[in-house]
Design goal:
The protein is of the alpha+beta class and 167 residues long. The protein has helices at residues 13-24, 43-51, 93-107, 125-129, 142-154, and strands at residues 4-7, 55-60, 63-72, 77-84, 112-118, 134-135, 160-166.
């Protein structure tokens, strides 16, 4: 079953929020189930990303089933959020989205993709390692990602790391 990745349109922002809520069900019963207590960003946030060409949507049979939200920086395209509908997980959709994000980074002339994620969940850091991402250490983290991890810790997110995929 093929997956089509395309740029999301601003008017699809609410749909993206629905995908994020569905994807969050993966956390139910995990040590990080508390993330379910936090609603996804407002639709306006996703609409703005879509308007800038920074929101990728995965479709199968014309149904939106996943997305990747990004933010460009001088050193990398930062993957802010990757989500696949709960019932569609484990079928290569996330992998296709990561490949599309890497392609977008290359199109923008950026040398890498960065992200932050949970260290201790098999579908987070270990999953990204299998896709070529490397966990950054304190010495290689850089100010931008150090601040991102600190902000996440301030929101109650623990056991987080920053990762980089060099293109």
């Amino acid at each position: 079953m093929s997956v089509r990745i395309r740029l999301a349109r601003p008017e699809e922002a609410e749909l993206v929020r629905e995908i994020e809520v569905s994807a969050g069900e993966t956390f139910r019963g995990s040590v990080h189930a508390h993330v379910l207590d936090h609603p996804p960003p407002r639709a306006e946030v996703y609409a703005a990303l879509a308007a800038e060409g920074l929101l990728l949507l995965a479709e199968q049979h014309r149904q939106a089933i996943g997305f990747a939200a990004c933010e460009p920086f001088a050193d990398a395209l930062h993957l802010k959020e990757l989500a696949v509908r709960y019932e569609r997980q484990g079928r290569g959709i996330g992998r296709a989205l990561v490949e599309a994000v890497a392609g977008e980074a290359r199109r923008r002339g950026l040398p890498a993709v960065t992200l932050t994620t949970f260290l201790d969940l098999p579908w987070n850091a270990p999953w990204y390692v299998r896709r070529g991402f490397v966990e950054l250490t304190a010495g290689t983290l850089g100010e931008r990602l150090r601040e991102e991890l600190a902000a996440e810790a301030g929101r109650g997110l623990s056991a987080r790391c920053a990762m980089r995929l060099t293109l």
